[in-house]
Amino acid sequence: MENDNAVRVRGLVKRYPDKVAVDGVDLDIHRGEVFALLGPNGAGKTTTTEILEGYRRADEGEVSVLGTDPAHGDRRWRSRLGIVLQTSRDEAESTVLELVSHYAGYYPNPRDPDEVIAAVGLDEKRKTRPRKLSGGQRRRLDVALGVIGHPELLFLDEPTTGFDPEARRQFWTLIENLRTSGTTILLTTHYLDEAEHLADRVGVIADGRMIEIGTPETLGGRNARTARVSWTDADGPRELRTDRPTAEIAALMQRFDGEVPELEVRRPSLEDIYLDLIGKANTANTANTADTADAAVSIEAGAL
Amino acid sequence: MADAKPLPSTLSVGLARTKLEVREFFREKEALIFTFFFPIIFLGIFSAVFGSTDFNGVNAATYFTPGMIASGIFLSSFQSLAISIALERDEGLLKRLRGTPMPPQSYFIGKIGQVLVTSIAQFALLLAIAGLLLGVDIPSEPSKWLHFAWIFILGAASGSVLGIAFSVVPKSGKAASAVITPVVLLLQFMSGVYFVYSSLPGWMRDVASIFPLKWLAQGMRSVFLPDGFQVNEPGGSWQLGTGAIVLTVWLIVGLFLAQRVFRWTRRDAG
């Protein structure tokens, strides 16, 4: 039975011999939204994503992707998904056009290869083989192969790692266009600005647990967004957090009788809030986390 | 969904993969030299080195042609598949394919199709060069070609399934050529592809008799050498029946192994 959620996860657990990679994750992704999964290396992002994609089996919990348990996903189910893996090799000797056209042949209702190539901005590279493409261009080819089948749900695993700022901006435009056309997107990323720019909602995962889910604007709660006023006095740099920055500045002006040295008022960015959340999660289960962090990183790396 | 269009058939996707695999093969220089042209180059070298030296009544090119044909079939099936699949697994291509609605069987249809197309092309080229340039007598009796057909099919099929199974042996894609090429080279030497088989030491012939290439080469000698030649075989005959049994056993073992050990992701991916 299909419901309004593209993805529904309850109590997901995945254990590896030396650690619990995913420890009771709940997750709903609504149809048509862009959901960003954030978290440090080894937090369980890739494991969770790969269970949703059908590459790994859950040990416990309930998983439904487009109404189907990924462990029993058939060809019809796969034809409704698009998967862009973190790293993948292309058939190295075929051109962009040959590859996109070939992959179109796997799907019952593919997009037009020429249109997809144009949409990812590889029009001038149609006759080029993948190894002659730049890193950003190869990634766009990955996306072209991921969306050629007209997916209802698209997985993007760290799509812009290694991009220069301009390439990232272009890539964001591409993703925004896909969202406009109604594609549901699950994005994992290390870049907070990327999540802020693209995602309708953000989930932060740390040490195998979903520690918070919210829109980029509400993540961390109201208190996390308290303004920070900083300045320098005889004792060095000072900072305070306040709900009434204007009043604080007025008081400072009186104290300094005019210019306040190095005065700055800042609202915490999503990145500050995220680091705060991760920091809290780490102190909550201290020693245990430190020991298993390296092992977790190597598992995630191996999963590539 | 009632209005869903049908999925493309396994066969049509398999044929599309065959086309892609063949294109990849002929565009990649390394595969082309070490798999496709290797036996042809060696036949040319042997023919030049030994010239008109007498090999029990035939010249060097005639004596070595069947061995090179056998060798080519084995390279185009076993070596080509073992290396390419190991690379594709290690570099994540198989993982990507598994994430699409491509039927797994279509992938194997593509690989087997590639082996058929490349080995037949290789054989035709080898035969043309041997017959037209090196003065090798090409048999014309239909019975010989009937033998050729079943030996070729059994050899290519067993080489293919064994190559698919062996692709899990190299630990990384980079190691694939380094692990697989020496195995194939050793088998070629022991199976008498580069020497007169009957002049090899007995123990080496015994070891070679376990493996398929020896029987493939012997079968090809039965097709391309004069019938009287079989007295020079260690067993005093072509032993086609034994050859058919050994190749069939390898085909079954290979099919079983390939199904058991094949995986779409790397070993370290839980």
Automatic annotation (TrEMBL), chain A:
Q: Which GO terms describe its molecular function?
A: ATP binding; ATP hydrolysis activity
Q: Which family does it belong to?
A: Belongs to the ABC transporter superfamily.
Identify the SUPFAM superfamilies for this entry: P-loop containing nucleoside triphosphate hydrolases
Q: Does the keyword Endoplasmic reticulum apply?
A: no
Looking up PANTHER family in the UniProt record yields: ABC TRANSPORTER ATP-BINDING PROTEIN, ABC TRANSPORTER ATP-BINDING PROTEIN NATA
The entry's keywords:
Antibiotic resistance, ATP-binding, Cell membrane, Membrane, Nucleotide-binding, Translocase, Transport
Q: Topology with regard to the membrane?
A: Peripheral membrane protein
Q: Which GO terms describe its biological process?
A: response to antibiotic
Which Pfam family, any one, appears in the UniProt record? ABC_tran
Q: Give a GO cellular-component term.
A: plasma membrane
- Domain of life, per UniProt, equals Bacteria
- Recite the lineage of the species: Bacteria, Bacillati, Actinomycetota, Actinomycetes, Propionibacteriales
**Primary place of residence?**
membrane
> What Gene3D superfamilies does the record tag this protein with?
P-loop containing nucleotide triphosphate hydrolases (3.40.50.300)
Q: Domain ABC transporter, which positions?
A: 7-232
- Where found? Cell membrane
| PROSITE patterns (alphabetical) | ABC_TRANSPORTER_1, ABC_TRANSPORTER_2
The name this protein carries in UniProt is: ABC transporter ATP-binding protein
From TrEMBL, chain B:
Per the record, what is one GO cellular component? ATP-binding cassette (ABC) transporter complex
Tell me, in one coarse class, where this protein mainly resides: membrane
Topology in the lipid bilayer: Multi-pass membrane protein
* Domain ABC transmembrane type-2 positions: 30-265
Pfam families, alphabetized:
ABC2_membrane (PF01061)
Q: Where in the cell is it found?
A: Cell membrane; Membrane
Q: Which GO terms describe its biological process?
A: response to antibiotic
Keywords for this protein: Antibiotic resistance, Cell membrane, Membrane, Transmembrane, Transmembrane helix, Transport
GO molecular function annotations of the record: ABC-type transporter activity
- Residues in coiled coil: none
- Residues crossing the lipid bilayer are 31-51, 63-87, 108-136, 148-169, 176-197, 238-258
Q: Does the keyword Cytoplasm apply?
A: no
Tell me which family the UniProt entry assigns to this protein.
Answer: Belongs to the ABC-2 integral membrane protein family.
Supply the PANTHER family for this chain. DOXORUBICIN RESISTANCE ABC TRANSPORTER PERMEASE PROTEIN DRRC-RELATED (PTHR43027)
Protein's recorded name: Transport permease protein
- Give the species: Kribbella sindirgiensis
**Lineage of origin:** Bacteria, Bacillati, Actinomycetota, Actinomycetes, Propionibacteriales
